[in-house]
Amino acid sequence: MTHIIRTISQHLASPLFEKAKDIVSWMGAIQAQDYNMCKWAIGVRLKSATIADIESAFERGEILRTHVMRPTWHLVAAEDIRWMLELCRDKVKAASSARDKYLEITEKLFIQTNSLIAKMLEGNNHLTRREIADRLSESGIKTDTSRMIHFMYRAEAEGIVCSGIDKGRQQTYALIDERVKTFKNLNKDEALVRLATKYFQSHSPATLQDFNWWSGLSVTDCKYAINLIDKDLIKEKTEQSTLLIHKSLDGKLNFSDCACLLPAFDEYLISYKNRDSVIAAEHQPRAFTKNGIFRPIVMYNGKISGTWTQTTNRNKKEINILPFDKKLKIDSELLKKAENKYLLFISFTKL
């Protein structure tokens, strides 16, 4: 039943939310290295939405994109970004420390670049990474691609910058202080409670190892966080591990058949250390590669049943389904409904 409960906890079987900021807050964080696909990761979990709705939420600063866990790109709700960065900062910085040294980036240089970046973005002056690199170069700082990635990593980790308003198709950076005006400070215990609650309410059933993988925190911190919310978790022991289910899901198994086209790097697959319960081992290489590339996938009744691609034929968008097992019969009406939801999403049309 693990796969069935996950479709409910992740709001795929029966979406309840209507606004982008609400589902992002519910999920805690949504992986987002593919900028266009992560918009669909939000849209597929809403009752009805278009890509324009998601982009408007980005523009208003209700949802933000930054490196916050593991570290990789994630979407987070504006009200969560500060405490989440504070909680994960040391791990994010440690993950790049060896490469920092190789690139001859010292702490003194980070202090300098952070100060320059903050100054150039003042007054809601949203800039692309290229524009920031040009200005740093004018100050005598080497800004080859790898160094710029690390300069921006650190500025994000220190809570200086986050995503700004797009310039056409180009993404920008902005000051967090100007994008997020109101927030609540949390101490470490409060932050661990908040993060663990968000993860298990939206990703149940999951294990300690899953939470550890998703958050990038230490095993010690993850165990402590789970202990802090112990009263809110139902435990189910299996031969391999102990599954943890948030109590808010207890008894909520009003499940009906469902099919979804999920984006590349979707939380339904990427946010668990072990994925065997939703996709057979022999099919996993077709869904994701050993070097961490996750493809768009077809979910049918909680199981990953294939991949999908989008093509354009005579200006018409078409979906191509590539099933893992051609003998598997997926309800054609449900599949058509899933395809239609995606095509309406990218065509700016409400369901």
List the helices and strands and how they pair.
Layout: H1 2-9, H2 20-27, E1 30-31, H3 35-43, H4 51-60, E2 63-69, E3 72-77, H5 81-95, H6 97-102, H7 107-121, H8 129-138, H9 145-157, E4 161-163, E5 173-175, H10 176-179, H11 188-203, H12 208-215, H13 219-228, E6 233-237, E7 242-246, E8 259-262, H14 267-270, H15 284-287, E9 297-300, E10 303-313, E11 316-323, H16 332-346
Antiparallel strand pairs: 1-3, 2-3, 4-5, 6-7, 8-9, 9-10, 10-11
Helix pairs in contact: 5-9, 11-13, 12-13
Overview in brief:
Among the domains are: 96-179, Arc Repressor Mutant, subunit A (Orthogonal Bundle), CATH 1.10.10; 188-249, Arc Repressor Mutant, subunit A (Orthogonal Bundle); 259-346, no CATH class.
Low-pLDDT segments, ≥5 res: none
Number of strand elements: 11
Beta-strand fraction estimate: 15-25%
The geometry reads as globular
> Roughly how much helix do the residues carry, as a percent range?
40-55%
Order of helices and strands: HHEHHEEHHHHHEEHHHHEEEHHEEEH
Terminal CA distance: 30 Å
* Computed structural class: alpha+beta
Number of helices: 16
Strand count, sense and barrel status of the largest sheet are: 4 strands, antiparallel
Radius of gyration from the CA trace?
21 Å
What is the residue-averaged pLDDT?
A: 94
Strand order within the widest beta sheet: 8-9-10-11
